[in-house]
Amino acid sequence: MDIAFTRPKVAVFVDGCFWHGCPQHMTWPVNNAAWWQSKIEANRFRDADTEHILETQGWRCVRVWEHEDVVLAANRVEAVLLGG
Fold first, then answer.
1. In this structure, what DSSP letter does residue 16 have?
2. In a 10 Å sphere around its CB, with 0-12 CB exposed, 13-18 middle and 19+ buried, how is residue 62 labelled?
3. Integer Cα distance of 75 and 82 in angstroms
4. Can you give the pTM of this predicted structure?
5. Contacts of 80-84 spanning 24+ positions with Cβ under 8 A
């Protein structure tokens, strides 16, 4: 998690398009392609697992892609913090 709001139990993750396999911007490397695919898929699995664990402990999770508009992303985080 990149930012934790502990009292309201809100976890914010800021995911890089390459490292977390953004469906909009991910381009797969040509060199050592199988290794990279395995690496990025493992990251995706870990992301989902971490989010699941946090949610079972009462946390709400917000994922923000690095390419997202900062103001829009902040508004999404704020909405979750305010109970939306």
1. -
2. buried
3. 10
4. 0.89
5. 80/10, 81/5, 81/8, 81/10
Q: Which CATH architecture has domain 3-81?
A: 3-Layer(aba) Sandwich (3.40)
Note whether 10 and 2 are within 8 A (CB): no
Q: In the beta sheet, which residues pair with residue 80? A: none
Distances (CA, A) of 57 to 3, 29, 67: 17, 36, 29
Domain ranges of the chain: 3-81
Tell me the H-state helices in 1-84. Answer: 33-56, 70-81
Q: Write out pLDDT tens, residues 18-48.
A: 999 999 988 899 999 999 999 999 999 999 9
Work out the angle at residue 23's Cα, subtended by the Cα atoms of residues 68 and 79, and round it to the nearest 5 degrees.
40
The token duo for 1 is 């998690």
